[in-house]
Write a structure and sequence with these properties.
By secondary structure, this protein is mainly alpha-helical. The chain starts with 12 loop residues before the first helix and ends with a helix. The model has no long low-confidence stretch (mean pLDDT about 85). The longest helix has 29 residues, at about 100-125. It has helices spanning about 15, 20-45, 75-95, 100-125; strands at about 50-55, 65-70. It has four helices and two strands. The chain has one domain.
C-alpha cells in the first residue's frame, strides 16, 4: 500500500524570491518588517481611532483634510503594493542591471520608512 505524500510548499518561498545581493535583500527585508509593524500597529490602535482622521495633508486646512477612519488602512495597503511591485522590479533588474535593482530596493526602503512614520504620526496625533 502506497503512502500518501502531501507536498507542503516551502515556507521560505517569498524570501527565496528576493535577490540575494545584500544591497537588494536587506532593504526589502527592512521594508517587510516595517509593513508588518504598520499592520500590527494599525490593528492594535484601530479601536481608539476617532471616526474622522487627518489623512490628506496636501489639501487646505479644515474638513478637506479629514477622511473616515477606514482610510487608515490605505497606508498599509500602499506599503504592501510598493513592496510587491519593487521586489518584482528588483528581481527583474538584478539579472540585467544590478545598479538599477539596488536603487529600486533602497528607494523602496526609504519610501516604506516615510509611510511608516506618517502612519505613526497620524495615529499618535489622533489618539
Amino acid at each position: 500500500m502506497e503512502s500518501f505524500k502531501i507536498k507542503i510548499p516551502n515556507s521560505n518561498f517569498l524570501i527565496n524570491q528576493i535577490p540575494k545581493e545584500k544591497t537588494i535583500f536587506w532593504p526589502i527585508i527592512f521594508s517587510l518588517f516595517l509593513f508588518a509593524g504598520s499592520l500590527i500597529f494599525t490593528i492594535l490602535k484601530y479601536a481608539n481611532i476617532p471616526p474622522k482622521i487627518p489623512l490628506f495633508y496636501s489639501k487646505p486646512w479644515g474638513q478637506d483634510r479629514l477622511a473616515n477612519r477606514e482610510f487608515i488602512w490605505l497606508l498599509p495597503v500602499i506599503l504592501l503594493l510598493l513592496i510587491l511591485i519593487n521586489t518584482v522590479l528588483a528581481k527583474i533588474f538584478a539579472g540585467k542591471i544590478l545598479f538599477l535593482a539596488q536603487i529600486v530596493s533602497i528607494t523602496l526602503s526609504i519610501l516604506t520608512f516615510l509611510i511608516f512614520v506618517t502612519l505613526l504620526k497620524i495615529i499618535f496625533q489622533i489618539s
